[in-house]
Amino acid sequence: MLDIEGIRRDFPILQQQVNGHRLVYLDSAATTQKPRQVIDALVRYYETSNANIHRGIHTLAQRATDQYEDTRKKVACFMGARNAQDIVFTRNATEAINLVAYAWGDAFIGEGDEIVLTQMEHHSNIVPWQLLAHRTGAVLRFVDLQPDGTLDMDSFRALIGERTKLVSIVHMSNVLGTINPVAELAEIAHAHGAKFLLDAAQSIPHLPFSVEETGADFVAFSAHKMLGPTGVGVLWAGPGLLDEMPPFLGGGDMIAIVREEGSTWADVPYKFEAGTPNIADVVAFGAAIDYLQDLGMPEVRAHELQLTSYAMDRMETVPGLAFHGPRNPELRGGVVSFEVPGIHPHDMATIADSHGVAIRAGHHCAQLLMRKLGAPATSRASFSVYNDEDDVEVLLESIEHARKVFA
Amino acid sequence: MAELFDDLYRELILDHYRQPRNHGELPDAPIHVEGVNPVCGDEIHIDLDVADGSVKDVSFWGQGCSISQSSASMLTERVKGRPLAEVARVTGKVRAMLIDGALPDNDLGDLEALEGVAKLPVRVKCALLCWNVLEQGLREAATTA
Predict the structure, then answer these.
(1) Which of A19, A52, A74, A298 has the fewest Cβ atoms within 10 angstroms?
(2) How far apart are CA A28 and CA A336, in angstroms?
(3) Active-site residues of A: which are they?
(4) A341 contacts in B (CB within 8 Å)?
């Protein structure tokens, strides 16, 4: 059991009032709040260790480099990766996917090759592949969904074939909450000789995660959705894959020898980290991982499962309220998209805000899915370790208020 | 916040949202324009008939929040049958009210009810969408005339 009261005290931002009410932050799928430990790590870095990394001889340069590389080891440990050198720091999950699309895609994808995606992907796992298809003449295929918001596995098996070179799928949907059966998907992809990319931006922050169990060849996620700072993403690639890929961005820190006629590249992962990286935020990301590790990811999942279950039970009492995604909380993460009849999600979000409740309203960067759902927009409440049943009750009050206004 | 909130969801706005005026297609209108707000998915279509320097007829339809749809409903009521110079003047005043927080005057009629939107910057684009679409339609009318 998590001590939610104690956890809340660690998050300075939650100590404020919004529009005269206690802030109830239910938008963690967009970005989570940051505990004091992360904020302190960021400040401490600038106050005690700031220097450029990987090239200085002086004490601070060594200190900064050690702290930056420590986070790489922590990330590896957190996701169950054997080798920290298989981890590349990017700006965000979007850049991690783009890195694969450009560096791996341009080298290994050709005309007529097929890339299998699903209808529940975030734009970050659609648009990079559309750009790649445009460059190479590759073809995109989209796996259909079942009415309950889970993947249609028959559709997946029918789409994958000889020409499939890559399957790129979200682990947990940011709209439906659906948790996809990634190990099974990866196995089918590999049986057809395709690589498997896992967009884990919504899952790694909320579930015990072992990269080996997923069977993925590439994993992308973001620090800011897991209590860490903005501006840091992670790409993990399976053994040897980064070595096979040409660089993505060129510049300092990613080279071995530069001559007028050409250059040779640094070893991985540095080959993919051109220029001065976001050192301070990577260091602070390490503190976010420590924080989650201290809570324990099985406990985090258990808490969010219980809270999601509670929220769905309570919201179901609102007349006409409809959920998207699986009704069984075991099949989903702590993301609840809903619609209240006669109330547009933006009006819902504005009225919720007047109660101090932060929810998301809109298409959630998943327009393919919204078209499939036949909803131009939904309201979405998403949970993290600092939320509890009281937060759900305040959300319910705001829904009741909205129903009165639009009665 | 209660005050801010009451300002936003005034009865007049809800009335236009529930019972939109001039709603639906105008099959014979020479101009059809549409606009979407890509951030939120709000969508406004306007059918427009401009003749002899006036908005002869206008209608709208679309989907979106109460602010975007009621603004469009009020727009059609305010500009229908009015000379283009007046439409331009009213459009300018609506923009000034929503963007700069200028005080509305009698010229705006029901549109005055949108005054509270100016205090919620994230919702201003909802109210402005139909006005942008109208201006696009008037430009098309000017070039096809």
Answers:
(1) A298
(2) 11
(3) 365
(4) none
